[in-house]
Amino acid sequence: MNERINKLREVLNEKKLEAVLVFKPENRRYFSNFTGTTGFVLITNTEAKFITDFRYVEQAKNQCKGYEIVEVSRLEPLTTIIEKMNLKTIGIEEEFFTYGHAVDFLLKLKDVKLEALEGALTKIRAVKSQEEISCIAKAASLADEAFHHVLPLIRPGVVETEIALELEFFMRKNGAIGASFDFIVASGVRSSLPHGVASEKVIEAGDFVTLDYGCIYKGYCSDMTRTVVVGKANDKQKEIYATVLEAQETALKAVRPGFTGKELDSIARKVIGDKGYGEYFGHGLGHGVGLEIHELPHVNMIGNLSMTSGMVITIEPGIYIPDFGGVRIEDLVVVTDDGYEVLSKTPKELIEIQI
A Pfam family matched by this chain, by name (predicted)? Predict the structure, then answer.
């Protein structure tokens, strides 16, 4: 944990700040190891304080090694603690620090200047340690196991929400602490919805069924998508599936340090565009995954951050045709020193479910 505290101090010094205040849950957990719901990390060049209320003091003492634990209360609010420390310039997470927070701080701390950290903490989190990668890999393996568990249940007459529920139940039963997002189970014409969250639609013969889901293991997320056909696939379904698979595998093979998300996105987009389906691929190729399901690096048309060994990303192109259906294939991938490692082990060939 001291290493992570030192990284915060590097940010503090680079930006010429007196302190950094962290309370976005994912950043707070990363820099302090605290898993509760209320708390603040306050770092200066000489002090590391974890500030929380009575409910979490004992937990913080057990989890937040290297920190002085400070209890906050109505009589001793966060602003009073900061005032006593005589801090004048504080770095904040501008994407999480609300207008209400800012007004409250500036009313009570008239001499304090708040400075945006400009995503510096998220950039630090983008490169995972081996321990973090192991947690993500475990979450990915639970998703793989869940796919094989649920596959026999996908048949005509089953409701999309039943499949989503069974996926989550299986992963929780086998070690996950929760779902990493609202699962997408989109069948038939609904599979043309890139974010078609599971509905009451009944699965029918001939449907594409897209399953996009993941779980949380020890705080870290997984994310995987597979698309199957209920019964025999028709020629158009086979063509679309083959196109997405080619785009996915072509972009995947290009993953390595030095490549940007923008470059990877363009590789997949060209494959789909050359086959005449460019207008039906309207989202980015992927995203970073870690304590959050969507984090740095961006793997899309604005992804200018170069890949670095230890980053975990998704590669997930898709084709979505209104009133027909759609296909997405997604793998969870670790960038390595000389390329990549795929964490999603579920096969990607087109599955036609016998009915």
Answer: Peptidase_M24
